[in-house]
Amino acid sequence: MKVSRIISGIAHPMLMPLYSVFVIFHSGTYLDYSPLPLIRVIYLIVAISTIFLPLSLLPLLKSQKLISDYGIENRRERVVPLVFAILFYSLGAYLLLKFPIIRPVANIQIAAVISIVMIAAISLKWKISIHMVGIGGFIGLLFALSILYSSSLKIFFIVGILIAGLLAFSRLKLNLHSPLQVYAGFVLGFITIFSSLLLF
Hints:
Blueprint: H1 2-10, H2 16-24, H3 36-63, H4 79-96, H5 103-123, H6 130-149, H7 154-173, H8 179-199
Helix pairs in contact: 1-7, 2-5, 2-6, 3-4, 4-5, 5-6, 5-8, 6-7, 6-8, 7-8
């Protein structure tokens, strides 16, 4: 149980945008040579919009009894936090678009917004694994980068697929999702991020 929770924490969907930015700046493309000050600003924008702002809102939502716990495992309680996540991610995407040289990073953020909108819509009727949406999107990013930039991302692929397998096992081991919810989450994340990045 403890190991499963650690894996779920390491592969938390809130961390996927930061992992994606790391891959972007180590993808063997022109982006590897971006100025260090710019890279720091990008990391800061992504961290604030995808981690710090959403997390800072949770105590308020809990105090207003809009969520019963910080894990937000109740499907019906997900919608409000997801709506705020859409707003925060959109703000991050808007700021990232101010730096045309790193447009791929902004595209990832926009793709993530689309993904969260779909999660919120699905959550109105059914519980889908947001963790698996996150790792599925990360794998989709790797495939998209390989196609768009002919990048060799073998190490990232190996690590990503290994984590995806461990994460799926962990979510099932913790009895937080059914197998269908886990598989559906991965497929949704992969297809949404992969197709969005190829279209932008």
